């Protein structure tokens, strides 16, 4: 199952709105087939593994990171494929919460006389597919908030200079994070200041994430890098009801997708914005700025992981803080994330924290 989970991880950022699933088929102590969900969500992991195993699947054990699907969608149910292959046993990590499945796959296998074992490495599988699970059960995507700051918690000098706080190794890690998420999101202030393209670079031919700007009034220019490349890689502009018609038309002409959401206190309604993204299929969103958006997401309890890059530099109190106001007046009320991972990247450090929200 651990091997199946490692295979499943290859699908992160590539398979939304589907879950990233891995499958390993074992017979007589040997792996005879393995697979993971392919880009776009098809074919499924079980089908790939069964194709590789061929007739050797008969009498074998299939280890699958998520309950095999039991419904007819774009492809027949994977539970039926396992039954047709005459596997003897299926071991799964999680029950699929999708109402179209939700125990039906396990029941179908048992009804066919196949032994089923559930819950193997369930915690690891839950962590891996937290985005899919959160979207299905709560209607929200999993959000990773990325911060790149100096040792004194600053993201730019007083003049706004921010390139580069971290070195090449840390920046490559950021691209790996983008690759494992369905979308990369910034606020309009960051878009205006940096004119980013938000793509994955220097990692070969990969499926690019959706690029999202939360821009209440559509202030970011359609002539920007995002606007000029919207037909090459998807751009979603999330705006409020007050966005001018001329700006909407200009962005629509670039090929970008426009998504209107309600306004909240002083900006867009962040829960509504994320719900809109989940409705369109996104399961994992990497937020890369800015400080006001970051603080707003934390205050609203919408951040699941906090990915912090610390550069070996110090700017001082006149620099721009990594986070805007959180409204914390007592230490007891401060967010207390859980440490997940620490890496040294050249002269910089990467620390991953979990905000411990349920998936």
Give the gist of this structure.
Helix content is 28%, strand content 23%.
Detailed description of the structure:
By secondary structure, this protein is α/β, with parallel strands linked by helices. The protein contains twelve helices and 16 strands. The protein has helices at 2-9, 45-53, 78-84, 104-111, 122-128, 130-138, 168-179, 188-194, 225-228, 245-254, 270-279, 291-299, and strands at residues 22-27, 30-36, 61-64, 89-92, 115-117, 142-150, 154-156, 183-187, 210-214, 235-239, 257-260, 284-287, 305-311, 320-321, 338-345, 348-354. It has a nine-stranded mixed beta sheet with strand order 11-10-9-8-12-6-13-16-15. It has a five-stranded mixed beta sheet with strand order 2-1-3-4-5. Strand 10 (235-239), helix 10 (245-254) and strand 11 (257-260) form a beta-alpha-beta unit. The chain is globular, with a radius of gyration of 22 Å. The two termini are 21 Å apart. The model has no long low-confidence stretch (mean pLDDT 92).
Please describe the structure with a list of short key phrases separated by commas or semicolons:
single chain; about 350 residues; alpha/beta; 9-stranded mixed β-sheet; 5-stranded mixed β-sheet; 12 helices; about 25% strand; globular
Q: What coarse outline follows from CA principal-axis ratios?
A: globular
Topology pattern, helix = H, strand = E: HEEHEHEHEHHEEHEHEHEHEHEHEEEE
> Roughly what percent helix?
25-40%
Cα(first) to Cα(last) distance is 21 Å
Described by strand count, sense and barrel closure, the largest sheet is:
9 strands, mixed
Q: Bin the strand percentage.
A: 15-25%
Q: Compute the average pLDDT.
A: 92
Low-confidence stretches: none
Radius of gyration: 22 Å
């Amino acid at each position: 199952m651990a091997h199946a989970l490692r295979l499943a991880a290859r699908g992160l950022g590539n398979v939304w709105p589907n879950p990233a699933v891995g499958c390993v088929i074992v017979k007589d102590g040997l792996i005879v087939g393995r697979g993971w969900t392919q880009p776009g969500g098809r074919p499924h992991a079980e089908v790939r593994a069964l194709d590789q195993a061929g007739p050797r699947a008969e009498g074998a054990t299939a280890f699958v990171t998520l309950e095999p699907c039991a419904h007819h969608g774009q492809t027949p149910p994977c539970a039926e494929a396992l039954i047709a292959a005459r596997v003897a046993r299926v071991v799964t990590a999680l029950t699929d919460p999708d109402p179209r499945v939700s125990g039906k796959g396990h029941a179908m296998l048992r009804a066919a006389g196949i032994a089923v074992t559930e819950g193997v490495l369930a915690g690891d599988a839950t962590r891996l597919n937290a985005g899919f699970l959160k979207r299905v059960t709560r209607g929200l995507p999993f959000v990773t908030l990325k911060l790149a700051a100096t040792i004194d918690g600053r993201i730019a000098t007083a003049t706004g200079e921010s390139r580069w706080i971290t070195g090449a190794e840390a920046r490559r890690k950021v691209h790996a994070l983008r690759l494992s998420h369905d979308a990369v999101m910034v606020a309009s202030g960051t878009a205006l200041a940096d004119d980013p393209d938000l793509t994955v670079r220097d990692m070969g031919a990969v499926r690019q994430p959706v690029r999202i700007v939360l821009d209440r009034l559509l202030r970011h220019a359609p002539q920007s890098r995002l606007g000029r490349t919207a037909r090459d890689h998807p751009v979603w502009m999330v705006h409020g009801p007050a966005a001018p018609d001329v700006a909407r038309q200009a962005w629509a002409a670039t090929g970008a997708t426009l998504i209107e959401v309600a306004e909240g206190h002083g900006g867009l309604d962040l829960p509504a914005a994320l719900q809109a993204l989940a409705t369109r299929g996104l399961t994992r969103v990497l937020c890369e700025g800015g400080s006001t958006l970051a603080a707003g997401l934390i205050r609203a309890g919408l951040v699941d992981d906090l990915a912090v890059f610390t550069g070996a530099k110090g700017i001082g109190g006149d620099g721009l803080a990594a986070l805007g106001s959180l409204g914390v007046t007592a230490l007891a009320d401060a967010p207390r994330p859980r440490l997940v991972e620490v890496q040294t990247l050249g002269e910089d450090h990467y620390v991953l924290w979990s905000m411990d929200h349920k998936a």
